[in-house]
Amino acid sequence: MDFVSKLQTIQASIEEFSCFKSPVSPPVTNDKDQISGSMRWKSRFVLLSGCLTACAMSVHVFSYGSMIPYIYSYLWFEGERFEIIHLNLHPSLFLMFVTSCGSVIGILSRMLNERFLFGVFSFLLTAIMMSIYWFGKTYLALSLYQCALGFCGGNVLVYIIGKATEWNPSKSGSANGIIGFFIGMSGFIGSFICSLYVNPNNEVTSKVFDPAHPELGNVTIFMDPAIYGKVPYLWVIFATMLAVLFVPAVSLVRSPTTDEVCEMTPLIEDSFEINPRKSAYNYSVGEMLRTVKFYVLYIIVLTMSLALLAGTELYKELAQNTIADDRFLNIIGAILSVANAVGRLMWGVTIDKIGSRWSLFTAFLILTPSMTLLYWTRHYPWAYLVNVCLVSFNSGIFTGIAPALVELFGHRDISLKYGVCLSGELFGCGIFYLLSAGSVKYYSEFVFLLLLAAPCGLSCIFAALFI
Questions:
Q1: Stated pTM of the model
Q2: Which of 17, 138, 341, 424 is deepest in the core (most CB within 10 A)?
Q3: Helix, strand, coil % (nearest 5) of the chain?
Q4: What would the pLDDT profile of 109-140 be if each residue is shown by its tens digit?
Q5: How far is CA 462 from CA 91, 203, 285, 348, 351, in A?
Q6: How many CA atoms lie within 13 A of 16 on its CB side?
Q7: Residue 79 and residue 330 in contact, taking contact as beta carbons nearer than 8 Å
Q8: d(Cα 424, Cα 147) in Å, to the nearest integer?
Q9: What are the Cα distances from residue 271, in Å, to 37, 48, 58, 266, 276?
């Protein structure tokens, strides 16, 4: 066999087994349409299952702002005495453990089946959430609960977001935006439960003074045991939601096979992206850590956590003394959850359209003044509603972390890269708690909000210059 014959044989073998057909191959339009339809449905099932699990896992933390007055009243009558501001530690602890431990599943997947690990973490998440019904009667127990929940929840979330990106390689921003939409809607569900189940009659709070703890001054709590006594049952409701919704995710959420990756080619060709922005080189995690852009993105993630916590956890606490209507505040919580959900979706689509740099720049440009204005608008209910929804909508840019990583560093080991980058939120949560605790004794609420807004302004500049 001469050289030309050998070359033709090799070319024929490549065309037979490659997912990229030769230009002279026979028309396969019908097969392409069939493959595209099949792969779209597979990716949709994976995405929907991940969305349901993310919603159930997030409901307790994104509705925590609505729950704080009830939890504080419950702990007060269980004998716990402390400033209500310290309950801000709990969402911070949860997010700190989500970010610091979320990459564990990516590391362990090198040794064990990642779908098995996902099932284990989902089961532990449900069991821990259910157990707080019996053990959550002290501040310490609730703190440990948030840590354990964050550890398991972080691994579940990182797994889901990583798989959504793998199944939607050309629309990772939109896929993460859809998951973010469901995460944001979890706060709507939680606020709805608080309004209809915990305080259906819109009972008002009372101010009490404990002579044994005069340093606390007049404390605002609910006096009716029919209200604060329902707190343990909230955990049971949330755990039941998770147990039901994570079942389809365990069976459907997985990585695409090699053949399925090849079949995704028609989907990539039909992408609605105008200017696809993908890294020409797939960085390893070690190579990523040696770049300046990673640390700029890391600082931006830290700032995102400040904006996210300010939008979801502070809204009730800031306005509790100026808006004396618990039902209206719960309605604000539900609406801002919808605003955050829509924001996550819209920012995900926007990142696919125009890229990470200008998406991040625009979001932080709006966030910086919006967070400061909360100090004045809290005196006017409807202005406060618009203001806090604007903060919550733009904090939805959080959904852009994974797409930004793909754009800057490629798809390789995306779950592990996401877990490493998300650890920036660990420091953001710590800073948020220190600032909120300091606002009790050392400076005013206006200075507190200004300190939260300043990093947003810096991130706006960093995004424009370095991303």
A1: 0.67
A2: 341
A3: 80, 0, 20
A4: 667 777 777 778 778 877 887 888 887 788 88
A5: 27, 46, 22, 20, 17
A6: 6
A7: no
A8: 17
A9: 14, 19, 30, 9, 9
